Amino acid sequence: DPSVGVCGSVVDAAELEAIASCVDVTRARLTVDRLQPGARYRVSVDTQGLRAGAIVRFVTFDDVDNHFGRLVLEGELGERIVVEGDFSSERSPVAQVHRYLARVV
Asked: How far apart are CA 35 and CA 71, in angstroms?
């Protein structure tokens, strides 16, 4: 029976669709490891040296140690902008790149 889960519990089709939707969103979400060197990103909210509405270019990610890291970006006038903090957890505000950067195509 396709409505029976691996553990023998009944699975509702709507629940499966909701789970699949979450997986799709998560896979598409912008993360530190998906930033492309040289690519342009629009800043959606102010954070550290970034200002909402600005266009920045990703330069590099400097993994200082197992927890602390720095995103190095370049502003429209060539100025260097650094966003730093704890990148060790997906829950860390600076690690949640999708909350403050969006790819410009």
From this structure: 10
What is d(CA 61, CA 2) in angstroms, rounded to the nearest whole number?
Answer: 45
pTM recorded for the entire structure: 0.71
Q: Any alpha helices (H) in the chain, and if so which ranges?
A: 13-28
Whole-angstrom Cα distance, residue 30 to residue 39? 13
Whole-angstrom Cα distance, residue 69 to residue 66? 8
Both tokens of residue 75? 């502003």
Q: Is the Cβ–Cβ distance between 92 and 84 less than 8 Å? A: no
Among 39, 38, 31, 42, CA closest to 92: 31
Token representation of residue 24 = 């799709």
Q: What is the pLDDT of residue 102?
A: 92
